[in-house]
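=== How it folds ===
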Amino acid sequence: MYDQRPNMIIGFHGCDESKANQLVNDPDTISFSKESYDWLGHGLYFWENNYDRALEWAKQKEAQGKIKKAAVVGAILQLGQCCDFLDAKFIKTISVYYKLMESQYQQAGKKLPENLNATVDPHNDRLLRMLDCATIEFMHKEITQKYHEDILSTGYSNIKVFDSTRGVFTEGGLAYTGAGIYAKSHIQICIRNFNCIKGFFIPRKEIDFPAPIKTT
């Protein structure tokens, strides 16, 4: 009943300047991330209402030589049918699919993927989320397969395919000594159904308001 996320939200995507301009000028040229360690599975990623974090991420990629010039593109998003891991219902849902995936791996004599620490991360935040990615993608595959089976057999389906996934993450070490707040905590969104993206924009810089009083 409360699965749909109808409200519009703003997301920010850190990337190379050329990609930011391309998405604004040609918004249908969208590509999935399909890395094995994607935190929320495969799709296009956004930082929810967090321009600074998106820019910080892009600057890290620039420093690593993975992009030429760090930039941020904004997007108006409607999450639709969202697998929201801030909602207890969907945490229970992914736990069920994990058990099913675990059973299939055991039957096949295969080892489950693991979430691993990255060598460049001093905080051991397990930035390489292979297990989480595999579990989420397994869930999407199972749901989508059942949906198509229903369509083929009856012409309709009550199965709800997820348009997006959403999660909150704590990382980056403590914000200060003794804190319960982490330096890089954020909400991340992964868009699977690109119809959820209503448009891209180049973020404006904030201006002083009211304007400073000029003295003569």
Remarks:
- Helices lie at 17-25, 51-63, 88-108, 130-154.
- The longest helix spans residues 130-154.
